[in-house]
Each structure stands twice: as structure tokens, then as C-alpha cells.
Amino acid sequence: STQSTWDLFLEMNSFTVFFLLILLSCTFAQTLNCTAGQYLNSTCIGCEMGYHCPGNNTKIPCLPGTYSSTVGSVMCIPCMLGTYADQIAAVSCNNCIAGTYSSTAGAIMCNMCPIGFFSTSGAVACTSCPAGRYSNTTGASSCLSCPAGTWSNQSAAICSRCAAGTYSSIVGATSASSCIMCLAGTFSGPGANSCTFCPAGKYSSVVGAGDASRCMLCPIGSWSAAGSSNCTFCLAGTYNSLIGQTSASDCLMCAPGSWSLAGAAVCNRCPAGTYSSASGGTSITDCLSCPPGTYSLPGASVCTMCAAGYFSAVNSSAQCNACPVGSYSSPGSANCTSCPPGTYSPNTGAASMSDCIMCPAGTWSSLRSPQCRRCPADTYNPLVGSASASSCLVCPVGNWAAEGSTSCNVCINGVSTSSNCRVCGLGTWTLEETPIRRYRY
Questions:
Q1: Helix, strand or coil for residue 222?
Q2: Ramachandran angles phi, psi of 61, nearest 5°
Q3: E strand or H helix that includes residue 144
């Protein structure tokens, strides 16, 4: 028909136009060539910052150590000295932080300053620490002044100490000549910022004494006044644990719980299980035994009551023992009390009767039980706190129960889970809770 011919014509012409459009677009894409500084993305687009476009229709990210800070870059620029770029596509370079430096262009990282040197931000090289100052770590942003008693040359990693027998009070001293000799009657160790006087009870005639051994000391447990030719022992009941003491008042009274003989450096502690409430004890006989229900550690001035849940049954106890399972105690107990029947205590050290737990239904317990016992199979107990096995009741005929039951279960028709329940024989049947067989003919 005329209509069908026209439709066929239109369909063929539409296909021809579509094919020509595809051909033209492919031809255009193949011939398009972007200039340097641009890349092809359907059309030519200016190269973004952080990239460069050399003119081959592509964009390339700037490598670490280079950057591009403008749109349409043809090439990436190396980072200047004292800066770095550690990632691709950088739009700028970062200054080296204080304590680091970069001495080459295009750096991807900065180098740490070595010990004895420092730098500020954006440094191309590190600076030596001046004399009298030092840097003992890499990556220092500044140098530290040498403390009094020390000195240093240039580029020092550490400060040199003044020799023993000398001192220097100057901060930032630049040479060993700053260290001055100690006078007689004083001494110093290495690195001193002043000389130390020999205290009363000591003397020294040496100039430049390098340690306290040049000051002659009274031994521990004794004392002397200035100019003494010998030392006097501390009295019994006192002690002195320091050398070079200057008077009898330096001998301290032994505290309660201890004692000493004459010339003691320390007081002896009363043994564990004993105590002494008075100070200045002169013999071990001053230490008394702790009574039952209490204990003491060495050096006690009083006996400590056993805590709830613990006991001690004898004199001179060094510790209290935990109450065994199934028992409890109050503070200061010499023995433990048993949990009553119908309760149990599974843990040692129970502190009161409230720690004795009632046995749940289906169980029972006797005196001092660590746990409750379950009622045997085919018996039950609906009550809590049962005190004997007689509390477990036998299930009635036609019923059964597992161990620890609080009630009985009915035997299901023809099904058995207990010796109380049996399968009916051939030709027989039973109702629930029926103890006798009924026959079917």
C-alpha cells in the first residue's frame, strides 16, 4: 500500500542520518589535537593546578619534589632549596620545618639536622651550636644553654662537666677555665655548680676534694660533736641510720612495734604474730603475743582483728585463714560457724550467715554444705531451704521426674522417659496417669 511504502522510506532515511552523525563525530575526535597546557576530555580543557599538559591531549600529575601552581601548565617546577613536596599533584611546596633542611632543588623530603646543629623553618643548611650551648638530639630547632657546672665548645652534642673538686656557677660557660677549685672544708663531684660543705661531725683539710670520702664520718648508730676524737653509741631503744650525725638528738626513738640494742643503725621489728604498743623497746621480750581471732605482720604496734570470713585459732598468728566452704565468720573470730542445713556456701571466706544461700526447690543440704544435693530421679521437692533427703517426695504412680525436679511429669500415652513409665504391650492401651493396663480385643 502507499502508506507502507512511505513508512519504509522514512525508516531507511533515519538510519542513514544516524550513521552519518556517528561517522562525523568519530572523524572530529580523531582530528582534534589540544595545544600544550590543555588535555582532551571531549573538548580541550586547561590543565589543572598540580598537573602539566605537554601537548599530547593528556594531563600528567606533578611528581613528588615538583609542583604546578597555575592552570594550563606545560611543565612542573622543582621545589626550591629549603622546601619539599612529598606527594604527587602538588600545587605548592612546603617549607622544611625547624630542625630540618633541604640543600637540593626538587626535594621530596627534608633532612634532619644532626646533633650539635639546629635550623629554623625553610633552612637550606643547619647551623652549628655556638660555644656554651649544645644539641643532643637530631632535628633540633634551637640549642640549649649548658647548665652551671658544665661547659662546651662549638657544635657540641653534650656539655662537658667540671672535674671533681671544681665547680662553675656560670650558665653557658665556654671553656674548662670557667671551673674553679673547691676550698678546704668543701668538696664536689663532677659537674658541680657549687662546692658542698663538710657538715658537723666531718672535716676535710684538702683543697679541691673530689668526693665526700675526704670528710671523715662517724659510723651509723653513733654521733659526735664538732672536734670529737671518737663517736658515742646511740642508747638502747634508739637508732641512727645515717653517718656523720652531730648530737644525741640525732638518735631516734624506736617506734611502737620495734626494739633495739645500743649502737643500732635500725630498730628490729617485732616478729609476725606479736606486737608492742610502747616506743623505745630495748629487747624482743617487749613484743607480746596476739590472741586468737587476731593477727599481726612484722613490726605491728597493735594486733589486727581477723576480717569477716576469716579466723585464727591460736596465739601469735601471723595471718588469718579463710573460712572453708559451707561456713562463715564475723570479724575477730577464732573459728568459723557452719551454714545451717537447707543452705550452702560455695565460696571460702563467707562473711556472714547471709552468705549461706537457701537451697532451691528440687534440692536439699545438710550442715556446712558447699553445695545443695539434687533430689533423685522420680522424686520432687517444691520447697526451698530443705534440710534433708526426706524432703524429696516420691512421684505418684503414672508420673515421673528428672533429678532435681520441683514437680512430677505425667507419663504420656505410650511414651517413656523414665523407669516409672513403661510402653504398653500389644493389644493394650492406657490413659494419662493410669497405673493399670486396659485391654482392647
A1: strand
A2: -65, 145
A3: strand 144-145
Q: Which of 336, 357, 279, 287 is nearest to 316 (CA)?
A: 287
Percent of the residues in the chain that have a pLDDT greater than 90, as a whole number:
64
Q: Between the CA of residue 421 and those of 20, 41, 434, what are the distances in Å?
A: 94, 88, 10
pLDDT in tens, 40-68: 988 999 999 999 999 888 999 999 999 99
- Euclidean distance between CA atoms 289 and 303, whole angstroms: 9
Beta carbons within 8 Å of 100's beta carbon, 6+ residues apart: 110, 111, 112, 113, 119, 123, 139
SS (HEC) of 386-441: CCCHHHCEECCCCEECCCCCCCCEECCCCCCCCCCCCCCCCCEECCCCCCCCEECC
**What is the C-alpha R_g of the chain?**
49
Measure the CA–CA gap between 261 and 251, rounded to whole angstroms: 12
pTM: 0.43
Phi, psi of 343, rounded to the nearest 5 degrees: -130, 170
Give CA–CA dist 194/173, Å, rounded: 14
Q: Which amino acid is at 245?
A: Q
DSSP-H helix ranges across 127-250: none
Cα separation of the two ends of the chain = 92
Q: Which residues face 410 on adjacent strands?
A: 399
Residue corresponding to grid cell 520447697: 383
Q: What is the pLDDT of residues 351-367, one digit of tens each?
A: 999 999 899 998 998 88
For residues 165 and 188, the answer to whether their CB atoms sit within 8 Å is yes
